[in-house]
Amino acid sequence: MIRRLGILADTRETVPIEYIDVTRAVARMLASHAVTVAYRGGSLGIAGIVADEALKAGGRVIGVTVEGQEERELPHLGLSELRVVPSEADRQREIGDLADGFLVLPGWPGTLSDAFDVWTWGTQGLRQKPLGLLNTNDYFTHQLAGVDDALVDQFVRESQRGMLVVSTGPEDLLRRLADFRPPETRRATSCDDE
Questions:
Q1: In whole angstroms, what is the distance from residue 76 CA to residue 156 CA?
Q2: C-alpha to C-alpha distance for 164 and 132, rounded to whole angstroms
Q3: Gap between the Cα atoms of 86 and 67, Å rounded
Q4: What 3-state DSSP class applies to 7?
Q5: Which of 103, 120, 95, 96 is nearest to 176 (CA)?
Q6: At 165, which helix (H) or strand (E)?
Q7: Is residue 126 within 8 Å of 31, Cβ to Cβ?
Q8: DSSP assignment of 106-137, as one string?
Q9: Is residue 107 within 8 Å of 73, Cβ to Cβ?
Q10: pLDDT-derived band of residue 128, with 50, 70 and 90 as boundaries?
């Protein structure tokens, strides 16, 4: 069951118009399903739109910001809760603790870095929480092709590839995240680079 979802998304000031409507729809859907949003706490970009729309729809939104980064990150001032932590590592840990799963929306490069961190936690058996990619406008298709190439070349196992839940529809993706059961994984040995 997904009660709180970590949102990994772009935080730049401008958002390409083709992603605005779907982002708003995602936020309204999460609010309608009583799913709390947990994210980096900013007011800009796709992440800021998610926060705004979820709040407008009566949803709960928890932001996690890093102490001293207020000027650079422009924290959202209308959140249900804003937590301040001492470092970026603490922020990742806090969002990871809050979330029952993660939803990745378009963004680059920080968004993908955060998504790969979450995926790595799962591949190493640390935090096996579902990781969903909303493949709006085929945004993640090229990145997923790279993952599939790594699977063919045996750098990624089938069980690890199975940890990535992908859909073009927000409702379908939320349902699949709620139904997700982590595949069997083995702990990394000193020779594995997972």
A1: 38
A2: 6
A3: 5
A4: strand
A5: 103
A6: strand 164-167
A7: no
A8: S--SHHHHHHHHHHHHHHTTS----EEEE-GG
A9: no
A10: confident
SS3 state at 152: helix
Q: Determine contact, residues 66/72, Cβ cutoff 8 Å.
A: no
**Residue 16 pLDDT class (50, 70, 90 cuts):** very high
Tokens 């969002």 locate to 95
Neighbours of 20 (CB within 10 A): 13
Question: How far is it, in rounded angstroms, from Cα 62 to Cα 165?
Answer: 23
Question: Which of 106, 119, 121 minimizes the C-alpha distance to 161?
Answer: 119
5, two tokens:
């979802």
For residue 146 the two structure tokens come to 């790279």
pLDDT at 70: 78
**How far from each other are the two terminal CA atoms of the chain, in whole angstroms?**
27
Write the CA distances from 177 to 31, 54, 128, 135, 162, integer angstroms: 16, 19, 12, 14, 12
Residues 56, 52: Cα–Cα separation, whole Å = 6
Q: Which two tokens stand for residue 194?
A: 């997972």
User: Residue 145: pLDDT above 60?
Assistant: yes
In the block, tokens 């998304």 appear at: 9
Determine the Cα–Cα distance for residues 73 and 152; give it in Å rounded to an integer. 39
**104 DSSP β-pair partners:** 8, 133
